[in-house]
Amino acid sequence: MEQDTTLAARLDRWARARPLLVDGSLAGVIWLVFGLPGVLVGGPAGLVVATATILPLALRRRQPVALLVWSTAVFGLQLAVLPIPLPANIAQALVIYTVAAHVASLPVRLCALATALAGCLAAGFRWSTEPEYTRNALVIAVFLAVFAGLIWLIGNVVRGRETNMRALGEAYARLEEGRLQRVRFLAQRERVAAAREIHDIVAHSLTVVIVQADGAEYAAEHARPWDRADARTALATIARTARTALTEVRGVIDVLRDPEAADDPGGPPVCLSDLERLVAAVRAAGLPVEVRADPAVFERAPAAVRFAVLRVVRESLTNVLKHAGARATARVAVEWTSEAVRVRVADDGAGASGVAVDGPGHGLGGMRERLRALDGVLTAGPRPGGGFGVEAVVPVAPPGARR
């Protein structure tokens, strides 16, 4: 059954793609079956009328209104010259069906029905015989009218189906376009997220590398004697930071290559040791950092929240390294409350000089976008006593409500 349906669908598509060929072939078959016998019924005049009635069917779907006018005129001529019906009159039924099925204008379709009913009445009286002429005429007219009305109704049903199919096709096309737009939107959002992630990684790593390199350059130029242990420490920090950055950038690129890994962009869940390594790298760059972190955050919070906490701390400390000045001190606090994880990063340096507090895209704006996806809130700005502060609040389910 499924194969028959598939074959029928293919034949239907093939016929719709070649209407002139199909209608021309149909007209030829009808002429052979119903047109040629007209010479036996009505002589040469019958053959001429049958040919004039059938052959224009080759253009029935291209010019249905013109075909209706032509068919009406030929049928009137037939009633005038021939007192009997012809087998070719079956073509008039096809004309009625064509107008009802393929003409969108309701007045034109109603005109075709009225013309058909009038023709049925005229044919009834033309083809009636004695002795009960009027009764026979009415019987013939009613029979032909019922037949013509059914053909007209079938054509309208087919036209309605075609209209519904076109509407469904347009709706499907709109849905498909909406799906493609959503796919493009999601791809764009992934690219933006990847760009933000790479910016955070590279900005932090390069900041540490630059601070270490500047310190090593200054020591090499001014210190007497040159301390190889300090140089080794600076170079080791640079190498470790660069390797870490390279690994994290590769992780982001792997996420872009494998969309199924997009829900776990950071690989294994962030733990307290990741925060400690981050702080150690910043301290090695010369920035004193005081840390107070609740271990429960890195044990109970969802992986996405832990990841966001680490990124907020890293971006904030990177800003301190870049903007707070040489004698600044940073303090980091990560707390677990009953409803949220709260992160505070504050410094006592030069303040907000050079920091884009409300800018979109990267930096603090990138942190806001990351927290917004978790229904979190980030506030940042100069502190009343000097320095700069960043505070992030990320809501989480309380431990008792977690499954």
TrEMBL record:
Its EC number is 2.7.13.3. InterPro entries: DUF7134 (IPR055558), HATPase_C_sf (IPR036890), HATPase_dom (IPR003594), Sensor_HK_TwoCompSys (IPR050482), Sig_transdc_His_kin_sub3_dim/P (IPR011712). It catalyses: ATP + protein L-histidine = ADP + protein N-phospho-L-histidine. The keyword Phosphoprotein applies. It comes from the Bacteria. Residues 190-259 form the Signal transduction histidine kinase subgroup 3 dimerisation and phosphoacceptor domain. GO terms for cellular component: membrane. Residues 11-162 form the DUF7134 domain. The chain crosses the membrane at residues 29-55, 67-86, 106-125, 137-155. This is histidine kinase. It comes from Actinoplanes utahensis. The lineage of its organism: Bacteria, Bacillati, Actinomycetota, Actinomycetes, Micromonosporales.
